[in-house]
Amino acid sequence: MDIPVNGFLYHSDDSDPMHSHKLFITSWDGMPVHTHEFKGITSFDDGHSHQYAGTTEPAPSGIQHTHRYFTFTSIDNRHRHQIRGITGPAIPVQNGGHYHEFSGVTTVDGITPHRHRYSGRTSL
Question: In which domain of life is the source organism classified (predicted)?
Fold first, then answer.
């Protein structure tokens, strides 16, 4: 089964060492898509915590959905962790729009191998 996807490819200035191009999807199967920002601070483990921030992957608007997310934490105590997962379903707000809750654990990293817990809500 083919699903029509529309969007555009943006050539970046190569300042991001992970990617030199960014793909912006504007519709999925005829429905507009949207993203959410997310950020927070991990649990305090092994004598420190980390900050994190990112933008979810696009998901269709107007129907029940979740978003995948991925980012790296800040570098603290000479290491960083990966954060990745899938948000919970959309939670509507009274004046329109919605947010998603997310939670999980980071990858195991550090001189003393450890992980952190994280949780929060996306932007509207």
Answer: Bacteria
Q: What is the pLDDT of residues 61-87, one digit of tens each?
A: 988 999 999 999 999 999 999 999 999
- Distance CA(20)–CA(41), nearest Å, equals 28
Per DSSP, the residues of 47-106 read TB--EEEEEPPPEESSS----EEEEEB--BTTB--EEEEE----EE-TTS-EE-EEEEEP
Q: 104 lies in which domain range?
A: 34-121
Q: State the pTM of this model.
A: 0.80
Spatial distance between the Cα atoms of 124 and 113, rounded to a whole number of angstroms: 35
In a domain, 9, yes or no: no
- State the total domains in the chain: 1
Q: Both tokens of residue 28?
A: 């999925």
List of residues 6+ apart from 66 with CB closer than 8 A: 59, 86, 87, 88, 89, 90, 100
